[in-house]
Amino acid sequence: MSKKKIVIDPVTRIEGHLRIEAEVDDDGVVTEAWASGQLFRGIETILKGRDPRDTGLIASRICGVCTNVHYRASVSAVENAYGIEIPDNARIVRDLVTLSLFVQDHVVHYYHLHSFDYVDMPSGLEADTKKAVELASKYHPKPYHISTGHLEAVKEKLQNYVNAGRLGIFSNGYWGHAAYRLSPEGCLVHASHYLTALRIQRELGKAVAIFGGKTPHPQNMIVGGVTSVMDMLNPQRINDFLFIMKEAREFIERAYIPDMKMLVDFYRDEIKAGDGRGGGNFMACGGYGFGRDAKLFEAGIILDHDFNTVLPMDETKITEDVTRAWYAGDEPLEPYSGETEVLYTDLNPDGTLKTEDKYSWIKAPRYEEKAMEVGPLARMLIGYISGSETIGPCMDDFMRDTGMELIDFCTSVGRNAARAVEAQVCCDAVFSFVSDMIENIKYYDEETWSRYDFESLPKDAKGCGIFEVPRGMLAHYVRIENAKVANYQAVVPTTWNASPKDGSGLRGPYEEAIVGLKLSDTSKPLEILRVVHSFDPCIACAVHIVNAKGRKLSEYKVRSACSV
Amino acid sequence: MRIVIIGGGIAAAYTANLIFEQSAEAEVLIVSKEKYAPYDRIHLCSLIDGSENVESIALELNPAVKLQLGEEIVSIDTKERRIFSQNASYAYDRLIIATGSKPRELFDTSGIENATTFRSADDSFKIAKQIKDKNVIIMGVGPIGLELLDTLMKMPDAKSIYILSRGKHLYSKDLNPASIELIQGIFESDPRVKISYNDAIVDRQVEGGRITRVYTKNHTIDDPFIVFGVGISPNVDFARDSVDVNKGVLVDERMCSSDPYIYAVGEAAEIRLNGYMAGRVKECTLQADAAVGAILGSDDAGFIQEPGIDGLKVGSFLFTDVSSPFYNPGDEDNETIVISSKKENRIDQYIINSDRLVRFIGINSNIDVMQLKRMIENDDAVDAAYFYQNRLVSERGRIVCSCESVYEQDLIDIIKENAVTCFGELKGLSKAGRTCGRCKKDISDIIAATPVDPQEAARLREEKARAEKAQELEKARRRIEKYNRLHPKNQISPDNLEEAIRTLDMSGEFNRWVSMVTASMRLHPTYEDVVKKGVEQLNKIPIIWLELSDCSGNSEAFIKTANPRMDDLILKYISLDYHELLMSAAGEQSEQVLDSVIENDSGRYILIVEGAVPLKMDGKFLRIGPRGETGLDLLQRTAKNAAAVLAVGTCALDGGVVAAAPNPTGAVGVAEALGRDDVINLPGCPVNPVNVIGTLLYYIMFDELPELDGKNRPKWAYSYRIHDNCERRGHYDLEEFVLEWGDEGAKQGWCLFKMGCKGPYADLNCPQLRFNEGTNWPVGVGHGCFACGEGKIAFDMYANNRMLEGEGDE
Q1: Could you tell me if residue A119 is inside a domain?
Q2: Which segments of B424-581 does DSSP mark as H helices, in order?
């Protein structure tokens, strides 16, 4: 049987420069796949030698999409190294920024970066607006901004646009592709929410900026706390924040979740066929406490789609492998000494990956030698099975309304469903976080910074900051020598998900989920894009200098509690 | 930083002043061997005829400059960073050699009373004192010799004046015979003057320290006074043991010598790459700009040779001289065109090489020399017809100040419009006469000859403003018409566009946005109509948005744009054809979109680039597209046919955080990667989307780049210092500072300067616009600014919460 090579580069509608190559047989079934990060910047190298108090503003530039989370992880890693506990208010302010970002990030991901893979936008022009209203009403009694009048206006807006002759961002999409399943009415409802979501994400940006100063790249943290004390003590600011979150929750309840249920309905065959299913290993570090002892996310490990058991997560079992990544990593290096050098072995002359050799700037982290998936799906599964009170009810509702089982979430469509449920969970919880903060202020706790004298802090220290962030588990590790950063490392969600093969040939999660897909048109590999997008790739984050083959990350960890 | 300048001329004084213009922190010491404070050598002739004295030709010097006179530097200790005279030594952090040149002599004049060079104030005084009833011999017929001759002709003192040319030329070996004849005729109208060609001194009699008789090839001259004006050589012997010296101190394009702490400017410097040595004041100032920019880190553009322009008024005629940096007098391919008029005593001489103008020498010429300069700069092919048609210049008259390109009529207009009555009042209105100073007297004469009336001046100013406004409005209208013509494919008619706006009930918001853009671009409200039309045209302009070595932060900021909202922006106002973060197409299909825009919209699309360009490892740190093109190759391919290139975000400016030390991937900004100087920079981390939209709009309306600053940033967005417009500025002035995070001052919104806010070092409009629809900004949130728009320096120097070293030490 002959094999055909498919190349997708650039993979658009993601952050960063990702290339996917796949081998397809005569029946259009993917037999092998390679995911490759194509940009290296060396931010960790840049961080070396700097004052530990300054890492946040530079590390934050790792990514402008999941912005803020690197800033936070970096500042937290330094606090962890020095044993600085931040005041409760500072933690809550940081949480508010992070949670509003979660919601914003998920909304943008589904509607603006991903929905074109499921929604044949131009077909929305053929829709009957009355039927579209009926369709939307099936999934929510009061669908968000859906009326025949409004939908007519949306249609007209799109029609005017098409008539104007230049299709802009809609040029040359896979429109009319055989794999599209949504009815014209379903497409119109999505198109309408695509436009509305542009407004919602902008509003959520304002929510981030209230306590974060701006977004992308908020600027409200320092080692020891936050700077936004004036905003925190301003009732109007808190009010503004709450009302934006309230509006976002409306949108999630009446648009995002219903649209996701609609998607599940139309793409039930793909779900049942297991399109986009990966290796079945999931990991989360949990975190974000609120109220008396509630917690947003749970920590744990699921292996081989075994939903009966959540194993405890043991960070010492994490290793890294660079056999197939563009770094010299055959000789294990002494821990903390030097960085692995870049070893670029180039592409083939025709621009394709050297698939038998090294082929990505992304390394391959493994847990007990297994490739792990991280992200909303991992969090929702682990939380649900662990009996989380925040996640459980939302998952139950969704499963009841759609008839989905846990295994069905382990697909491309399912990953999106898990992400939508997570947006709902975060949105609900954010009000409790604000209550905690108001309670503190009410009892005259206005602390936002823990005082320390930098000169008397230890000259040598190590620490880490580990968080769940929109795309999965994020960890920053810092080693300080002579009061300067001696080594810095970030292991980010997409590093796990987009990892290349390792020394034993084991595929990364993207690759594993692509293999076995059947393509209806190999010149328009829409099905592959669906799988890749369902992970919400963020490639700028994922590319990092690594230290040594197989070296345990836990060696960085010295203090007991990595604040989570 | 302690900066020491050696030298006592215009290069030294200009450099010292420039340092203080750009930095309040530097300490500057000038060490000069002369006993006078730095003065303008251009006016040495005026010291001879007594029309000026050494105080009146002194150069303006910032009072903060320390001055050490009468100290000749003899050596440099580069290790200890000290310079030594016979009696003293001075420490430096940076040394600038601006020692100029020393005049050449044809024989040893030590101990001889009646022979001198002509290079310093003391030389002038010696000439003035001794020429009475002497037979003066001027050796050398270059500009200096001729100017001296002209001065002496106006004085009765000399008995006779011989001027000796070794060849058969005056002024320059390149001057054509007709011009020489013309000049000769004018000089020889004074019977005392004797021009002697193919001549040289062959012998002399000396008695008691005086030369009593001189034998030249053609003459025997008794009781002479001899002046050497035969050329100069760089005065750099003292530096030979310390830095690389050829003719002058060898320097790179930043004027830095082989020692990283030593710079050289002006006639003392020799560009290592091509052996270039400055001869004119303008070039010396450009070199000083480059050196100071490099030393203070304010600008690292380096010295770029421009065609030189010289003007020299001698007696009744005016020389104008334009010379290409590539002019080589010995090149046999040089050809000459001469256009002369007996009636007007005018001769225009053009020297052409391979179809390019390389030099122009005019006598009483009235051709537009600035146009000739542009012709050389642009490397335009010569059209001889132009020389003929344009020789009756312009309504703007002759060029008066060649350093600052000021024409006579422009000057007269300024004088009339502002009722200027003396040279001093011209300050701030025109830079004419303020660079080399040669034309200062000429300008004073023009002012004296121009009658002024304050009422008339006010009327003229109004009339001018009206005419300018009308002209600009007309230009914008024409531009919009042109776009309409250029886009026949576009199916939007004015009717259905208006209809669309009505349907969407967008008019309210639309108008608000138009007003806002009009205001933030600092345009008068009368522009609103034109802005509105410009906005409507935007959706016809194809846009390619490239993401290179980036974090997508600028794209993420861009989709959060309000007024217009993103949905309207992409559906109605701009045609965002290629944008990896947002476009529906991927892989091969997205590549097709890109190729199609590059090919079918060549010369019309706008390229927006986000991110740095990694250059190390042949640029392979970034590969994009099905063919694995490097970021650099992709950038070059898309930029080639673009109508304009916008570099958005700080990484695109100069590499930003990606190029922060140690710059692992060799990242540079877009302009540097392309080697172009017309890239518009819109830095910020991320850039505020209003600044992107406003700039696009300006380009579309006026068919030209908005006015840019030294970093090619639009002035309308980047000419505000954050500190000056900060909402917390009042607290700064009252010295109310936050001293600890979360303290009472922090709760009250006091100034963050002492917490390391870098607002004083940042030029951006953040305080006015704020972010996320005016929700907040880094100072608002109590953190302070880190000057993120200033480039990679922000990430190496400013991205911390500490004051800069030396700030706030009380």
Answers
A1: yes
A2: 440-449, 454-486, 494-503, 507-520, 528-538, 553-558, 566-568
